[in-house]
Design goal:
single chain; 371 residues; alpha+beta; Phosphorylase Kinase, domain 1; Transferase(Phosphotransferase), domain 1; 2 domains; six-stranded mixed beta sheet; two-stranded antiparallel ribbon; globular; Aur-like; transferase; serine/threonine-protein kinase
Length: 371
Amino acid sequence: RAKGARFRTATRRAEWAVDLEKERRGTARAIEGAVPYVMQDDAHMGNYTLKDNFEFGEGSFAAVYLATHKDTGVKVAIKQIKKRYLFSENEKASVWREIENHQRASNHRNITTLFEIFETPDHINMVIELADCGDLEKMLQTRRTLTEVEAKRVVKQLLEGLKNVHEQDLVHLDLKPANILFAHDPEVRCDTCGSSLGEWQAKTPGAPPNHNSPSALLLKICDFGMSRKVPDVRYFKATGDVNKIPFTALTGTEQYMAPEILLKEPYGKPADLWSVGVLMYKLLAGIMPFIPTRACFARKPAFPGYMWDKFSLLAPDMVGKLLTVNPDERLTVAQALQHPWLDSVYHLQVTFPHFKICPAARRGSGDQTKK
């Protein structure tokens, strides 16, 4: 009986491996220059040493750990997806969709780079660029609100990353503080010594940390688990529009979810701009614009004077144009980037008086250099 059970388990694993290989090959054909893919043994983890006691986060069927490349010593984040929790074909396909979409979008400095994937008998492992300066959620737990200058820098970088996502014919669908990470910005350099801010802090005793201020940090969008490809001709039959995704289930986090998704209607790229509007309101006011979330159908966002008088008049103007219930009237990402509120974004605060933005320090023409 035990021998029969082992045989059935081995058979299921073989079938699972065949299914995954078929989906993987389809993904590899779908994108040019697909990420490297290999099969490894669980004990070796390929070229990486995993720190099991350093976990960034854990979801229903995945966890993210700190790891180090054995040859170069470079630190990365490895997202381990547990195969045993992927029961249905839809769940398996969603993993490969996340990998494909992340790879399509990761050629930009404001998006975490997907370096490679490798598979072990128990996990699918995604090797992702490490953003080691925390995330926006933890920053807001410490600060609650940001200054207007800081909020401008966050929103500007968020929109630049989102512009790349949309240009790659993708919609993210899960923009929220926990999915917005920060890393040291190589463009922020010292006037006198030429060091980047991260290098200067590492070698200067008593240097003030910048983890609680985004003024000198590089924003990174992560987690493409909810993302979808759009436009897609397959949507036309259901919605009559290749740019509208037919509603199948609530996707994302409800507080940042666009009204069209809450109404279970077809949705597209404007859904991401609603999330940006909610984030911008929260960064400046410290609270959500609609409580409860579905109050957005009953009223427009409120801008009480005791919260908003300290900001320029352009701030509520931009928020209002992003938090428009009708997606056809909502700002596009290109229009949002042209809004006058975002003028004069790059100013470092007095915490780092000898540092300034040096675009020449950027590696390449604005894109994230790949491994």
